[in-house]
Description:
alpha/beta; single chain; Zincin-like; 6 helices
Amino acid sequence: MVRRITEQxxxxxxxxxxxxxxxxxLRISIKPFKGIQVSVPSAVPLQxxxxxxxxxxxxxxxxxxxxxxxxxxxxKAAKNNDSIDPVLAKQLLTSHLQELAKRFGFSxxxxxxxxxxxxxxxxxxxxxxxxxxxxxxLPDKLQEYILLHELVHxxxxxxxxxxxxxxxxxxxxxxxxxxxxxxHHIYIL
Length: 189
């Protein structure tokens, strides 16, 4: 069972303490648009968790500053989201996906193009592929990587070693491109 408790801490702000039987240690995370969260093991009193936060005040304030800057950039970029024409995005991404599927012998059921906040793409168990229209803002090599990644998921539904081996057969630099893609934040594009 998970319990959430939100507290205000002077000089830091709102903190969500998440008490969980799965938590083994006190752990602080600061994520864009989610704020400061502290994982608290069941046996640890809330007061001890608050003291832990206080002891990490400088670290929290430093990271909170960079997260706030990131959120500002993301909010500015969100206002520009409408600049990607959804009809054009569907046409371009669908056509590229079809071409890659044909070239490498993949098949899929349906494709949908969305304006997602957290994913570049996904593939359902029924081989329906969903793509984020923001893919069009990426360099060509990363666009192709995402499309091939989802096509390989039509055969292998997880990220096992077998999946990566299959992807690297058709795209030898797949792991390198995966790392490069992580530098591009969906919120900002």
